[in-house]
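PT: before anyone asks, these are the final sequences, not the draft ones from last week. 856 residues across everything. Please model them as a single complex and drop the result in this thread when it's through.
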Amino acid sequence: MRITELSSERREELLSGLREKYEAFRSSGISLDMSRGNPPKEQLSLNSDILNAVTDPDDCISEDGTDCRNYGVPFGLKEARELFSQLIQVPADNIIIGGTSSLNLMYDTISRAVTHGLAGSPRPWGKEKHVKFVCPVPGYDRHYKILEHFGIEMITVPFTGHGPDMDIVEKIVADDASVKGMICVPVYSNYTGDVYSDETVKRLAGMQAKAPDFVVMYDDAYVVHDLYGVPAEIPSFFDECVRAGHPERPVIFASTSKMTFAGGGICCVSFGDENLELAKKVMAMQFITHDKINQLRHVRVLRDLKTVRERMDRFGSMLLPKFEAVEDTFEEFLGSYDIAEWSKPRGGYFICFRLRYGGAKRVVAMCADAGVKLTPAGAGFPYGVDPSDSYIRIAPTFPSVDDLKKAAELLSICSLISALENNTPLEV
Amino acid sequence: MRITELSSERREELLSGLREKYEAFRSSGISLDMSRGNPPKEQLSLNSDILNAVTDPDDCISEDGTDCRNYGVPFGLKEARELFSQLIQVPADNIIIGGTSSLNLMYDTISRAVTHGLAGSPRPWGKEKHVKFVCPVPGYDRHYKILEHFGIEMITVPFTGHGPDMDIVEKIVADDASVKGMICVPVYSNYTGDVYSDETVKRLAGMQAKAPDFVVMYDDAYVVHDLYGVPAEIPSFFDECVRAGHPERPVIFASTSKMTFAGGGICCVSFGDENLELAKKVMAMQFITHDKINQLRHVRVLRDLKTVRERMDRFGSMLLPKFEAVEDTFEEFLGSYDIAEWSKPRGGYFICFRLRYGGAKRVVAMCADAGVKLTPAGAGFPYGVDPSDSYIRIAPTFPSVDDLKKAAELLSICSLISALENNTPLEV
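LR: through. Structure below.
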């Protein structure tokens, strides 16, 4: 039903009922935080294997005889690099293990580029007049904050359902030498849930870049985070880049934040050979070792891709009812109207909700006012500004199914109120 | 005995005997690495309490109810900040907890100053023509590598036995606005073992600096690492700075690397209020959390200063025989000659060995050739250059007492050979 085609009487009647429901929500005392993608408690409680993987101080020796309790091996245990190698499809020798946060490795990579440059940089990025990055939107707000912090201009590109619109990306990257990079989440993209198609990955690897030090910051945060037990099959971006003659292009990140503990996992970054050497040279100044005992805990439990997939399937089946609860509630309350669309992702941590009549800021504020905190409207865009004011990110992983149903109903009600009051669709 | 006063016959006779001993060492197949300050295995094996402090995933809640397994609390658990507060004499609210490596926090602090500046900076350090740091020497090579990496010029200042020569430091810092900082190890200084006196600390806090953003990077790496069970008493540098009207001056670091596991500890940095806010603003972009589970392990075991001191006394009594073995061997083989002096530290991780006839590079090379790897000569100086070529750092913590005796004997033999062959003291 197109709400623009409603009679004004019918619209008023609908609005009156919706406002009543909204007020009922407001006075119900609901209090729910769906703003960030946190693993749920019931999943975290299944991780006693990690906590008990290394309990004897004399059982802290890695496969090559390294005493993990002591200094040394700054770039990570071989077996930890081999584990991530299977997850992100990069040779283990090109991988460096970090601490808890892959975001920190991203920040460091950009920071290093700014102060010292990357492979092929004519000069440090900080000495360039302009440095620009391609950003598929809506995307991950923390990526944008790092880029903004270093004064990097962001050029947005829309999604197609199988990654960013590559016609646009190719043109931007080929035409402008100040475009030094792109930042993206290739599998179950945050927000949209896009899984990059084979063609997208190959074009990303093969496209011509005017900047000699162009990199793709490839955040594989959800690479094994399937909801339906069906792995997202995607070519190795690293291999495709090597094959296309762009071996220094891929900078690939991953972490176990949502496999074991967000508050106590391990992470990695990988580079092409030359960028790897540059990174190692600087990292050797930054630290003597990361937490090798925690690396040992993780490899002893997660072991290999097969074991990780089994674990993630278990977690996926805990998350799936949550995603379905939100999707079904939207369908129930919004299915017969033309005011919104939402993603039905096959994995990852988010549902992307789009208001065809705009008003995202208002809707998020209304939900907050009634006790449900959502990711701020606009967060998926550089500088926090969504030009169409239409995207809202739903993070359904942490709350209970009952709470999610309520929150999705509230969001539906607010969206309807906003659209009916506004009554002007973004596109005809 | 002054070797310059030896008759040439006696010198040749001595040399001949020493060369014979050296060759015997060379063919004995000794192989020993004393280049870095690693905790010994027997100490690491006492840390099962840390590994078993958190083994139940539902027992990961901090005092304020934070679920340590999940994201959040980026700047560290309150109880972890309170623990370090007691160790480094800084208010808990001014402390930020990091991952395994305090060196990483130092790198980050300098990197942030270079790209964005610190409290009071007229502009980012990277936009200044010259940035200089005061470096008491001999000091910690990893400090100098970070400064060198960012193009920061280093001005060396000698030690007095109770810290750097403050007359010189005060003059440099008061006269030159490009002197933005000083980097130092105030307790059991690496190499010399100096413990900064009350006067040194107060003058460091109170001295006038020409640069409005002058900071003292105060690496409290060995603050509770006493060898004789006698705590190093030193005023709170943080409090002294506040009292002197220089609240943004102190940037204080510490870690548990040598209290629990070098390969799995926690660390901290602290700032004055304004620098703290600046740091938090940027760190909020760098990571969502550090490893809070490991923070929990540490606070549950280390608890408070008293408990830490008991633990460190236990470790100190394991290390003391090692230090004494080296000192006694030097006394035995070098005590009757005028060719060397060595520190007898009350704590920390190193013995500072100084050759009065120079030749440190040659002596280190001779030892390496005979199977004993020492810290490279010159490492205690910026750019790896010791102008007098006289300092050698001994790291006696890791090897066994027997190995240490052999290594110290070899070093004595090499030092005597070098001095007798050279026969020219550095000072008259």
